[in-house]
Amino acid sequence: xSALILFDGTCxxxxxxxxxxxxxxxxxxxxxxxxxxxxxxSLIKKHGVPLNVDSLVLIExxxxxxxxxxxxxxxxxxxxxxxxxxxxxxxxSPIRDLFYNIFAKYRxxxxxxxxxxxxxxxxxxxxxx
Length: 129
Known about the structure:
The chain has helices at residues 12-23, 38-46, 67-77, 93-111; strands at 3-7, 30-34, 57-60, 63-66. The protein is an alpha+beta fold. The protein has one domain.
């Protein structure tokens, strides 16, 4: 069983986050695709996610999770001390997502943006769809 993370392939912070997750996911539970890819676009349509989504998307058990819910569900599966962050799920998502939305709005300004998606190194390329 695995889950799929859709991420903004041009966002430096998002790319760094994917690398962070990969290092803490030794069994390869997560697979990855950029939101900009054909597969990413197809999956957001299939799961009823808005086409202009400005969020990390986690597709797990055929359900799409967005924003902090996606991030917290990812943390829960990582091989690290970040698992405890999943406890924040008890905070209502509109409150959690308020902070997420602010961060998302400024992420390009703070971390930069690439013109194209990253090319994963050969040792982890099989995790990218």
